[in-house]
Design goal:
This protein is mainly α. The protein contains 21 helices and no strands. It has one domain: Proton glutamate symport protein.
């Protein structure tokens, strides 16, 4: 299957290139791709999400029932959250290390950096509540250029997509520091399932499972049997969907890249030099985590060889790369970790759904790299204290983040604002975000699998 998926990815890449370069009014292949190929990719993601929500619900309840001991559940739950927190902070630290060594924001023409710095100065003057950063004031050295840029109002127009994400971030920020805890408790479990509110579903599932195992056996037997049967049904549904996975992956890859490039092959070349260095720094950081850090943890603690670990989760990684969603990949991840890495279902059923919701190592790393890279591009040298703030903010912001494509952009706005930078800067990295989103989702899923292996050592003890 994994070879079929790799071939589908390559064919999707080839098709998208041919579609972009041959698209004309007489032969509108882009239009054909959007209307007749892309929908199959969307169907694939929808199918996985449709299965994921009830699978999370029944798998967590099933996992708790199989543990049978509330004290053991508490120990495993605490261990799981602490490990997820630790790996996330490590991921952000790796990102900061890579970006400070690479300095992608400085690998561009100085004229471009000066323009960007002047734009920042003008924005800061118009935003008096933003703290003044101790750095070069480019506008003071280039007054004529500053006046020219200030007169060009189009430079400061915010794209509607960026506006929407800024609005979402503002709403999250205004809700207060304890709102994520409040939001984790559902007032209607059916509404939570309908809206894919994963934290609320997990809370309900844990509560339900804990109460269920405390009932007398004669009272709980029927419900436990129902939960186990439902769990098996949804696992089987995943297996059926996976049969057609290569076709769906081809449609996803072709549709995504054609939509990204549009009719203009050169659309992504505006800030190509910066984007290439920035993307390179992100991918290096993500590779360090996925190819070295996680396999090392799995080997030292889980007693799994590098080869067995990577081969065991390869299908989940490919699915994550294709869907850019930890939740959509969750059914495949659970299958890989249980069948290939021999982690008990009681552990995978509990640890992986939580990880798909709160563990965003790849997303946190990319936020750190992106924020520092954009600051460098604008002649802003962030202090150690400010970078520590990035570590803390990115770690906390990742908890409860929606496990869906590009959710990291909303979180990045919160991180930018935490160190006094312009949240509209996310527009700079939008052209390559979808590709990097695919890569960082692979890391998120690999991290979930690793923590599941580690926690399983405790559950087997």
């Amino acid at each position: 299957m994994h070879w079929q998926v790799i071939i589908a990815l390559i064919l999707g890449l080839i098709y998208s290139y041919i579609a972009v370069v041959t698209n004309t009014e007489q032969f509108p292949i882009n239009h054909f791709t959007k209307n007749y190929i892309s929908p199959f990719g969307e169907i694939f993601i929808n199918l996985l999400k449709m299965i994921a929500v009830p699978l999370v619900l029944f798998s967590i309840i099933s996992g708790i029932v199989n543990l049978k001991d509330v004290k053991k559940l508490g120990r495993i739950g605490t261990k799981t959250l602490l490990i997820y927190l630790g790996t996330t902070m490590f991921a952000v630290t790796v990102g900061l290390l890579v970006v400070n060594l690479w300095k992608p924001g400085t690998k561009v023409a100085e004229d471009l950096r000066i323009e960007k710095r002047i734009e920042y100065e003008i924005w800061r003057e118009a935003t008096p509540d933003v703290p003044v950063l101790d750095s070069i004031c480019a506008s003071c050295d280039y007054p004529e250029k500053a006046m020219e840029i200030a007169a060009d109002s189009s430079r400061f127009e915010i794209d509607s997509d960026v506006k929407e994400k800024m609005q979402n971030a503002a709403e999250s920020k205004d809700k207060g520091p304890l709102y994520p805890i409040v939001d984790a408790v559902p007032n209607n479990i059916f509404d939570a399932m309908a809206k894919n509110k994963m934290l609320q579903i997990i809370f309900f599932a844990i509560f339900f499972g804990v109460v269920l195992i405390q009932l007398p056996e004669d009272k709980s037997a029927v419900m436990i049997g129902l939960v186990e049967s439902a769990n098996l049904i949804f696992v089987r549904m995943v297996e059926i969907v996976m049969v057609a996975m290569p076709i769906f992956v081809f449609a996803l890859m072709a549709g995504t890249l054609v939509d990204l490039a549009g009719n203009d092959v050169n659309k992504l070349l505006d800030l190509l030099q910066f984007l290439l260095h920035y993307s390179g720094a992100v991918i290096v950081g993500l590779t360090l985590l996925a190819a070295f850090f996680y396999p090392t943890l799995a080997k030292l603690i889980g007693k799994l060889s590098f080869k067995k670990f990577i081969q065991g989760i390869s299908k989940a990684q490919l699915t994550a790369f294709s869907t850019s969603s930890s939740v959509a990949t969750l059914p495949v991840t659970m299958d890989c970790v249980h069948d290939n890495l021999n982690v008990p279902k009681s552990t995978t059923s509990f640890v992986l759904p939580i990880g798909a919701t709160v563990n965003m190592d790849g997303t946190s790393l990319y936020q750190a790299v992106a924020v520092v890279s954009m600051a460098q591009l604008h002649f802003i040298d962030l202090t150690i204290a400010q970078q520590v703030i990035i570590v803390v903010t990115a770690t906390l912001a990742s908890i409860g983040a929606a496990a869906v494509p590009s959710a990291g952009l909303v979180l990045m706005i919160l991180v930018l604002e935490s160190v006094g930078l312009n949240p509209a800067w996310i527009a700079l990295i939008l052209p390559v975000d979808r590709i990097l989103d695919m890569c960082r989702t692979v890391v998120n899923v690999t991290g979930d699998a690793t923590v599941s292996v580690i926690v399983s050592q405790d559950s087997e003890a």
